[in-house]
Write a structure and sequence with these properties.
There is one protein chain. By secondary structure, the chain is α+β, with helices and mostly antiparallel strands. Helix content is 29%, strand content 25%. It has 3 helices and 5 strands; from the N terminus they run E-H-H-E-E-H-E-E. The N and C termini lie far apart (33 Å).
């Protein structure tokens, strides 16, 4: 994924001095919008976080949040594909998941039973420093994102 793509806005303007640009690590991927893609997404995220030297509780929390966001995109939309991006900027990790939405006038899909629904975003809210959603631009779908302060887990 190229800088400034649909998942995340550019962090600095075109005329920002080089010294003002924070160090950024990014990783993105696209998988089919199927339930079996959730495990693969979780595995890809865990592998990337380990390459970045992030393990233990932060790794588990990132994997949990990304898994919940990815699952929501698969279960509650009619997406053929789901995009995911991780962005680490000076200890603040942003996870963004973009779905393709549902065609206008069609009900949202639900591929899980009633008693299994509703916990994912509660978990995301409990462990994230911030999270939200907005319409994807341009095109259909939504982007759901969460931020985690990785610095909170690093020793002083």
């Amino acid at each position: 994924m190229a800088p400034g793509n649909a998942l995340s806005p550019q962090l600095v303007g075109p005329y920002a001095p080089v010294s003002a640009v924070p160090a950024i690590r990014r990783f993105g991927f696209e998988l089919p919008g199927r339930t079996d893609s959730v495990a693969r997404a979780r595995r890809l995220i865990r592998e990337r976080m380990q390459r970045w030297g992030i393990g233990g509780d932060p790794l588990d929390t990132v994997a949990l949040v990304a898994s919940e966001l990815f699952t929501n995109a698969v279960v509650h939309t009619a997406s053929d594909r789901v995009l995911c991006e991780l962005r680490d900027t000076e200890g603040q990790l942003r996870i963004a998941v973009q779905d393709e939405g549902c065609p206008p006038g069609e009900p949202r899909l639900c591929r899980v039973s009633e008693d299994e629904r509703g916990r994912g975003l509660l978990l995301v809210d409990a462990v994230s420093s911030a999270w939200g959603a907005h319409d994807a631009q341009p095109g259909p779908g939504r982007i759901v994102w969460a931020e985690l302060a990785l610095d909170a887990w690093r020793p002083c």
